[in-house]
Amino acid sequence: MIQSMTGYGKTVLQLPTKKITIELKSLNSKNLDLNVRIPAYYREKELDIRKKLASALVRGKVDFSIYIENNGVELSSKINENVVKEYMNQLRTIVDSDEIELLKMAVKLPDSLKTEREELDEQEWIQIDEAISETVLEINKYRSDEGAVLLADFEFRISNIEKLLQKVIEIDPDRMEQVKEKLKKGIAELEVKIDQNRFEQELIYYIEKLDITEEKVRLKNHLDYFNKALKSEDSNGKKLGFITQELGREINTIGSKSNFAPMQKLVVQMKDELEKIKEQNLNVL
């Protein structure tokens, strides 16, 4: 069954010292375009994240983010006591001020605060990795639900083309009869003597060039193949795109050969339905 490339997934993981929000968004794209935004201390796991997402999502413009909200228990920045004290000693020699004022000045000077890099906790990462897997499951469910909507629309459009093709088949004998009458009328208006046998041969040759029997059969086969591909396990947008190209080729050929206004009107309607299929197919995984 088909899946859409459009999807969204979100998981919130509550840890003792922080809340971690994992978010996945995807839109349609010809290939996998993966954008990963994670805190610096998870960078060593970025390659693993990319492999997991590439395997699960296959295609699409994908944005992956990890947001951290600390609860204030842990501080990554601390006062560098030795540096601050040295600043205060130097300031005493040049300004006459109390300790509070000296401290205010000292903490504004370079290196008075030191930032300690938070190290990756492997046990914490195991929980985060599980949460990422949950988010992937959620976005894939979203994609499947969107795919079901696309499937219903495809089936509706293909059914419309099948009905229009049936009408083409029904009026084709009238078209051929009209072609013959036009040719006979044209010859009669010329008021010249003709070789009847030669005329019949030329008529047969001309009618064969306008014959659409093969196109009708191939179009029906392509429509059946499209329906079959929609329901197959390996259904994908690229495969469906190839089939729509073949559908378009047969519809265009019928239009160019028709030379009959009622049939050309049906061809225009088939083209309209096919364009809607092509547009929707851009979203199929």
Please render the helix and strand layout as text:
Blueprint: E1 7-14, E2 18-27, E3 32-37, H1 46-57, E4 60-70, E5 77-79, H2 81-92, H3 99-106, E6 113-115, H4 122-190, H5 196-210, H6 213-231, H7 237-258, H8 261-281
Parallel strand pairs: 3-4
Antiparallel strand pairs: 1-2, 2-4, 5-6
Helix pairs in contact: 1-4, 2-3, 4-6, 4-8, 6-7, 7-8
Write out key terms for the chains shown.
62% helix, 8 helices, four-stranded mixed beta sheet, alpha+beta, two-stranded antiparallel sheet, 285 residues
Word description of this protein:
It contains eight helices and six strands. The radius of gyration is 35 Å and the shape is rod-shaped. Helix 1 (46-57) runs parallel beside helix 4 (122-190) and helix 4 runs antiparallel to helix 8. 62% of the residues lie in helices and 14% in strands.
Number of strands: 6
Overall shape: it is: rod-shaped
Evaluate the radius of gyration: 35 Å
Name the beta content range. Answer: 5-15%
Q: Find the structural class using helix and strand composition.
A: alpha+beta
Quickly count the helices. Answer: 8
How are helices and strands ordered from N to C? EEEHEEHHEHHHHH
Task: Assign a percent range to the helix content.
Answer: 55-70%
Give the N-to-C terminal Cα separation: 10 Å
Strand order of the largest sheet: 1-2-4-3
Main sheet summary: 4 strands, mixed
Overall mean pLDDT: 87
Low-confidence stretches: none
